[in-house]
Write a structure and sequence with these properties.
The structure is a single chain. This protein is mostly helical and 426 residues long. It is 63% helix and 1% strand. A two-stranded antiparallel ribbon has the order 1-2. It is elongated.
Amino acid sequence: MSAYESLQMSRIKYRYEEILPLLEAAEQELLKTKKPEETSDQMSLTTKLFRKKSEKYFAAKHVNSLTDAEKEKLNLLYQLWGNVCTTCLKDFDKAVERIRIAYDLLKELKLKNTNTARFYSTMADLILNKSRLQQGNALCEKSKIKEALEFYRKAYELRMELTQSEHHPDIPVYLANIGSCYYQLEEGENAIEYYRRSLRVEDEMVIDNEEGYLKTLRNLALALRDVDKYEDAIDFGERCASRRMELLGIHTDTARTYYLLGLFYYERNHRGDMRSAEENFNEALKIEEQLWKQGKPHSVDWENLKRRIQMVLARTEQKMKYPAYKRRFDNAERKSTQEPKETVILSDDDPEVDSSDDSVDEVKVEQMEESNLKSKCHDSNSSDSDEGDTRSVVSKDSGISSLASFKGQGDKFNKPKTAWKENLQS
């Protein structure tokens, strides 16, 4: 019971340090052991290292004495442990160590049930999350993505074997995760196929997983954009924006979606629709202003949004509008404007300010436009969580996490459009 309780605690954002004792207690109960005593500050370094090493193999040495029923319980416990670490983004080494033990147990017991399929998904989540935190070379990361992809496929195939149908709450999550793996492997058409399949199954089943659905919508829009299908990308982006506004209202997720729509219009047909781009960037800016007014942080696209607005004004020869935008940017970054009072939104008719400080930097914009002909990839300063952290999206019915929610690689394809690096995927 404590293991399931720990998973629910992770979803409602309890601290990992509060959850870990529950997992350890469940493990001790199953393995019929006691946790090694805590090391004191006075212990020698050698003793501390020895204790740490012994803790590393704390579980493995007791597993052989368990019955098959106990081994199956331990397998489930370690699966839940992996889900907690994925949700909290903590202690991946400890989780991976235990998930490897669980994988051996799964093969030994020849388990083939719902929990087995979910175990494969958890295994894939941990492989990807640990790989990204280690920040290895591109070739190593690519191999980890392929390994994770195989586990997501195993999860999907076993679920299909068990139900003989795609109409199961876990299926859309597996399909979306497979699509995200293909996206990161720069296989855009495959990513689009699996994102569409995920959305189709959710539509057919009317699953109550709205946020997961919207993340898949957003990722599909990104994948379509990366293969130059801008009309379709805009269509899915608009669906996502309207539903996020209804569901979340003033929220970083909503701001990011309007920013993304503005970017699609900016790039459309290689010439762009600057009027629609500015309208959507302005919608994103309004939400960012409200977030700041409420004392909340900006979305991770905030700096990119300011630069994009400057580029739109330069391309449309609307330099006179920049001072008003500049004041809005400044107000949305000034601590005093976070007091509980009405934020003044300056219009284009407001008096001009010193243009030496607030004018569009034409040299910088020209440099940006030249860079547009060279690269399109991630923003090295952006995290990819829609909330400014990297929480996993969890299927309410399945208890499994979605890759689409964690550190997606965003603008991965090298296309000559973006002036700087932007990380866009949810």
